[in-house]
Amino acid sequence: MAGSEPTKTVSVKNGAQHIQSVRDGRSVYLNGKLVHDVSEHPAYRNAVASAGALYDYQSAPDNLERMTFDIGGGRRVNRCWQLPRSYDDLVQRRKALAEWAEVSCGFLGRSPDHVASSMSGMMMGIEVLDRHDEKRGHAFREWFDYVRNNDMFLTYVINNVQGDRSKAFGDQGKGAEDMVARIVDQDSSGITIRGAKLFATSAIMANEIFVSSGQPLKPGEEHLAFSCALPMATKGINMLSRKSFEAHAVSEYDNPLSYRFDENDALVFFDDVKVPWERVFVLRDTDMCRAQLHDTPAHVYQNYQAQIRLSVKLRFLVGLARGIARTIGTINFPPVVDVLGKLASQAALIEGMVLGMEAGGAMRGEYFLPNKHLLYAAQVQSQEMYPVIISTIRELAGGALMMLPSSAADFDNPDIARMISLTQVSPVMSGEDRVKLLKLTWDAVGSEFASRHLQYEMFYAGAQFVTRSHSYRTYDWDRAAAMATRITDGYTLADSRVSAGQAA
């Protein structure tokens, strides 16, 4: 129409661009062989497509404003890169992260917003890196701008290979020098690292990897104390993949979750990998490995994202539990209603704590942070709660999960299909749909894929004593004790004797 303004071109990452970006010659090993293209290999292609679906979701015109924000120059990136400067910013960001989690029902544990949240938190506390070394702080700023502006999918490896746990990481003994990634050389162009790191969840479909140590290091382990970032296809980065559940998924009908959401986990071995100085953020400083995560908002933001995702996953599981009760006809049994009510309260508890983290948040300099203690309290609760919820759903389903057809192929045989229709009976759906729902349930609570998720939710934030120590460290003990102190400070033993004498 004459006089109308020209349509503005908006640049935002989509699924096709992400899938193309992982076709970079990265070294992934599975079953003794090198995988040449993870986007096409049957062990990974659906998970890669699921990552692509996240970017397609954010780039859809109807979702663009909610899911992304403008960084200038006509470029928009996901809100996981947003550095909130107010409570409203934090809420807006959380809503976008929750929408993304709903795309995978919370089963992509290390979706692109997880490590991006951690790195964004580190950026909010960049002065901590500057105090360590201004050059290293500058390097992080430059790298952060690069990965944010390109809306990259990041992963990280911040855990050391366990080895002999009775010994320190740097004291594993002769022959184990390369067990943990360490600095083996340093020159004018950068450092060289050799050794292994855990756990590279989602590394097979990520763009870059952040490498450091989130576990305590001691004096004398300075060769282990560094942080850096590298493209996944960097020469010398070797990913040793665990078993692929996607590869063993019989069909989408039989294994609907593992078929598409097996994000994979890998051990990464750095085989004399050269890291240029512009990619080195911490150098030979054991305390800085701690400080970069805990003295900045990095640890808070990465775990805040994890609780947002988990709240979505719990909502999915609770909805599944009610679906089972409807399917097998127990929905009106009072004991079942009682169980469903408790499950609903457990899911709502985590979601409520996420809202509480935001309402109880505070400014740190120019940025708004969720409440630390409510975050760590939620982690303590969710680590204990997740196994209980899984067990409860299995109890609700009972033997229904064990009397399912062997695979979707059974429906192709008319005789078998007839027997299935006679035995898979539901008051609310067809036998085929009953089988579909119960197979989804099994993939969520009982399959090998489900077992991996159980282990992941119990330990991704560390052992329970670790999360409990964070809760202990961040609780306002002085405020909690003040009421008792106020009472006991109001009287003395002598006062009590006087009052007792008066009463006599």
Count of extended strands:
14
Question: Roughly how many Å is the radius of gyration?
Answer: 26 Å
CATH top level class name of the largest domain:
Mainly Beta
Strand order of the largest sheet: 2-1-10-11-7-6
* CATH H level, superfamily name of the largest domain: Butyryl-CoA Dehydrogenase, subunit A, domain 2
Portion of residues within helices: 40-55%
Number of domains: 2
How would a textbook summarize the main sheet? 6 strands, mixed
The average pLDDT score comes to: 95
Q: What is the CA-CA span between the terminal residues?
A: 98 Å
Report the β-strand fraction as a percent range: 5-15%
How many H/I helices?
18
In oligomeric terms, what are we looking at? single chain
Could you list the spans in which at least 5 consecutive residues all have pLDDT below 50?
none
What name is given to the CATH topology of the largest domain? Butyryl-CoA Dehydrogenase, subunit A, domain 2
Shape: globular
Structural class: alpha+beta
